[in-house]
């Protein structure tokens, strides 16, 4: 019997066999690849977890720095004082704005309370303030309280958010590690 194209039946099974061979991967190949991926992930996961923890204090410093810059720019544009408040025992900080002689949280995302990880120790040093005051103030004329916010992670790495002059903006300084002495 011949086909309408003039080919015999004997050539069709050969082509079908070739197609079957090139269709895809076998179940054994898939299992082998998945085993290799799982083994690789199992070996690298502990080191990745340590890497992310090691960056935690740097991420917190970036977030604090961003809020200081927001508070300064809003104090200037709105002609009112802003404060970055800290509750070091509760490991929290937030922004407030002056309204009729008192400071109130503003109802925006940046006005929410931010948390600091329990693996990070936070210190606030503000010049010319009582030790009981835990805030940094931003003034409408662009001035800022001279202050240092020090973040230390559980491994002893220190990063500081520093403003050394009332006319400067805050910046991050990487201070290295605590001496083991």
Give an account of the 3D structure.
- The protein has helices at residues 12-21, 27-54, 56-78; strands at 82-87, 92-99, 102-105, 114-115, 120-126, 135-138, 147-153, 157-163, 171-177.
- The protein is an alpha+beta fold and 181 residues long.
Separation of the first and last Cα atoms: 95 Å
Low-confidence stretches: none
Oligomer state equals single chain
Report on the biggest sheet. Answer: 5 strands, antiparallel
User: DSSP helix count?
Assistant: 3
Mean pLDDT: 81
Q: Strand share of the residues? A: 25-35%
- Structural category is alpha+beta
Which H/E pattern describes the elements?
HHHEEEEEEEEE
What is the radius of gyration computed over CA atoms, rounded to a whole number of angstroms? 31 Å
The amount of helix comes to: 25-40%
Question: What is the count of β-strands?
Answer: 9
Instruction: Specify the overall morphology.
Output: elongated
Question: In short, what is this structure?
Answer:
The protein has 181 residues and is of the alpha+beta class. The chain is 34% helix and 29% strand.
């Amino acid at each position: 019997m011949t086909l309408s194209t003039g080919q015999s039946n004997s050539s069709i099974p050969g082509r079908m066999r070739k197609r079957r061979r090139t269709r895809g991967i076998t179940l054994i190949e898939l299992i082998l690849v998945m085993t290799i991926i799982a083994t690789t992930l199992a070996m690298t996961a502990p080191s990745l977890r340590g890497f992310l923890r090691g960056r935690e204090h740097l991420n917190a410093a970036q977030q604090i720095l961003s809020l200081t810059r927001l508070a300064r720019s809003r104090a200037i544009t709105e002609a009112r004082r802003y404060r970055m408040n800290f509750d070091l025992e509760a490991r929290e900080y937030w922004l407030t704005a002056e309204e009729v002689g008192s400071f109130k949280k503003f109802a925006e995302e940046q006005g929410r309370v931010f948390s600091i990880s329990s693996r990070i120790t936070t210190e606030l040093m503000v010049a010319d303030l009582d030790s009981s005051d835990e805030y940094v103030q931003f003034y409408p004329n662009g001035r800022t309280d001279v202050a240092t916010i020090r973040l230390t992670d559980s491994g002893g790495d220190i990063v500081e958010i520093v403003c050394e002059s009332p006319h400067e903006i805050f910046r991050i300084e990487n201070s290295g590690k605590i001496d083991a002495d």
